[in-house]
Write a structure and sequence with these properties.
Blueprint lengths: L1 E10 L2 E6 L5 E6 L5 H13 L18 E9 L8 E9 L5 E4 L2 E2 L4 H6 L2 E4 L5 H4 L2 H15 L3 H21 L5 H39 L6 E6 L8 H7 L1 H7 L10 E6 L2 E2 H4 L2 H23 L4 E4 L8 H14 L3 E5 L15 E7 L2 E4 L1
Parallel strand pairs: 3-13, 3-14, 8-12, 12-13
Antiparallel strand pairs: 1-2, 1-4, 4-5, 5-6, 6-7, 9-10, 10-11, 14-15
The chain binds adenosine-5'-triphosphate and magnesium ion.
């Protein structure tokens, strides 16, 4: 998937910009506050309906404006009949987000994610190591969602069952036991299904992760493993039944697929406690790149990579190896940097480079 055309209006300091990105590496160069991250953010909204930066939309809409609009033409080389898909998103300060795909109102943001898979490498990516299991679960589920179409409905059904079970547990009535039996069974059934998809996915991700670490010249012994959210020896129904008394006392379901995690360790210690900042960046890049490579291998789809401030934290050798890997992936990449020359010597002659200069909310191709 590549973005052929991009129009952004009234989105942060980008009043009205229009660009035609190249299919390879797109470099966005500009001073602090110019609008580089805002452009990446606009692409991430187009890919998921959500920003990677703000949890609340009003902060994205340009000051003193009422709405933002985003438009992109996405090229899908896998489509036989309609390879160019127009997508548009607009959001008013006081109304729902409107998503249109090929002129039709979209049912959900999940449709965008399917059409335009995007991976973001920025300072928040460190959360994959520093953050709670929820961050790693979302990372893993992004991958499973894209490669296994049965995952999302099972995940939604498990969420519903979990919510109902927690509601009953919260009010703690013994008379609720019969209803609890029903939700235990529903949750257990979908939990086993989700666990199967996640375990299968991670087993395929591990070799890709190891490959990426080697490409990025990361030399410490690091391991990636999957924790399903409850004990390996126990089936989920048994777990829910056995923990009912404790769950009633706590008022919520303590174990289950909503507690799954990816464990990233160096010499059996949590990676975040051992690695330097630059090493952490290499590990999170390896995870995100491995996911893109696996997606490509399993579905033929290519991710678009958004890399905010690529040079930060990396020495010149590791910048070089990250640029090499991004080139090898042959996908569309948007990279920001404040220094025009920081990445100048890192690309091979064959790579299609498109350079944009970002200045006070205006973007010009060089
Ligand atoms: N809702 C908004 N309306 C208008 N301007 C905004 C809004 N939100 C943020 N800004 C401004 O937009 C500008 C661009 O921010 P952005 O984060 O894109 O800069 P950047 O080029 O990535 O800079 P840096 O190199 O420092 O990361 C900033 O000056 C910021 O204050
Ligand atoms: Mg920025």
């Amino acid at each position: 998937m590549t973005i052929r055309r991009l129009d952004v209006s009234r989105f942060r300091n980008l009043t009205g910009v229009s660009l035609e990105p190249g299919p390879g590496v797109n470099l966005l160069i500009g001073d602090n506050g110019a609008g580089k991250t805002s452009l990446l953010e606009a692409i991430s909204v187009l890919s998921s309906g959500r920003s990677f930066r703000a949890s609340r939309t009003p902060t994205i809409i340009q000051f003193e404006q009422n709405a933002y609009t985003l438009f992109a033409e996405v090229f899908n080389p896998l489509a036989q009949f309609q390879p160019i898909v127009p997508i548009g998103i607009s959001r008013n300060r006081d109304s729902e987000q409107q998503i249109r795909i090929s002129g039709q109102q979209a049912r959900s943001a999940a449709q965008l994610a399917e059409l335009l898979p995007v991976q973001v490498i920025n300072s928040d990516s460190f959360q994959l190591l520093e953050g709670s299991p929820k961050v790693r679960r979302q990372f893993m589920d992004w991958g499973v969602f894209h490669v296994e179409h049965r995952f999302f409905p099972a995940w939604q059904a498990a969420q519903k069952a979990l919510k109902q079970r927690n509601k009953l547990l919260k009010y703690g009535k013994i008379s609720a036991c019969q209803q609890l039996d029903i939700w235990d069974q529903a949750l257990a059934r979908y939990a086993e299904e989700i666990d199967y998809y996640r375990a299968d996915y991670v087993s395929q991700l591990i070799p890709e992760f190891e490959y990426m670490l080697a490409e990025l010249k990361f030399t410490l012994p690091i391991s990636l493993s999957y924790y399903r959210g409850w004990d390996r020896q126990t089936d989920c129904l048994r777990l829910l039944q056995d923990s009912r008394v404790k769950d009633l006392a706590q008022g919520f379901t303590q174990s289950g697929p909503h507690r799954a995690d990816l464990r990233i360790r160096v010499n059996k210690l949590m990676a975040v406690d051992v690695l330097s900042r630059g090493q952490q960046k290499l590990v999170v890049c390896a995870l995100l790149l491995a996911q893109g490579r696996l997606l490509q291998r399993l579905t033929g789809k290519q991710c678009v990579y958004l890399v905010d401030d690529l040079p930060a934290e990396l020495d010149s050798e590791h910048r070089q190896s990250l640029c090499r890997v991004l080139e090898q992936m042959q996908c569309q990449v948007f990279i920001t940097s404040v220094e025009p020359d920081a990445l100048a010597s890192n690309w091979s002659a064959e790579t299609e480079l498109t350079m944009f200069h970002v200045k006070h909310g205006d973007i010009q191709q060089q």
